[in-house]
Amino acid sequence: MSDGDEIGLREASDLLGLHYMTVYRYVRTGRLPARRVGGGWLVRRSDLEALAPTPAAPTERGRRGRPRHELRVGRLVNTLLAGDEAGAWTVIHEALASGATARAIDIELIGAAMREVGERWAAGAASVADEHRASAIAHRLIGRAGAHVSRRGRHRGRIMLGAPAGEMHSLPSALLADVLRAEGFEVHDLGANVPTEAFVAFVAGLDPVWAVGVVVTTKPPARALVPLVRELRRRATVPVVVGGAAAIGVALPLPAGVSVSQSTEEAAALLLRGDGRRALMPSGGGTL
Asked: Which pLDDT tens digit goes with each residue over 161-191?
């Protein structure tokens, strides 16, 4: 181990964007190799690379030319996987302080970070427990950030979000809900695994409803999507926006006029568009 390659834990925590105690915990649990020197620890810069996230697409650049947004996504991934909720909130708070919009916070930062977490899990670089803990922290971050970006005053209309029976992921609709609230809408998010009858009854009780968004991310629940959308269109006569990974590129027998969006950004646009709503009512729908 060369002296030039070694740094202390304080510098390592700065490079990783993690709290000092998080990096110390990595050392004590063996996740980060280190050697004791006097009263401190030294780690190799090269070993930090294994803890660094895959860069996300940049949206702005810092003073030294490095993409600031890329760095924020990277730091957020690290803190989420480390279970460092305080550090994760610091990343979000910095973005809020810099003037980031709800769309940037939820879609470009938290959403991008959770996609990276999912990719790490799929590659075997993160455990199921790591992914679940990161998701739980992400939910709490969304709740805290929402208080900073929601628009006050009279709302523009009501939007209903949820997932069909069998769909166990609630994070996508939570992210979308914050974006819509920031645009002045009253959003009711039922979360994951909502039975068709309960979903439809809730929408009917909210009348009038501007639009309904249904999220489906895994294949089995996609089968429950079709009867849910049909019942929504039959009983509530409301514009329906459907989307999620399991709905993209899959031939689903959805009612006439219902399309499928390719991204959360597109879903938000379809739900917000007044001209899209007029085109969808009373016999069509949009997608999430």
From this structure: 999 999 999 999 999 999 999 999 999 999 9
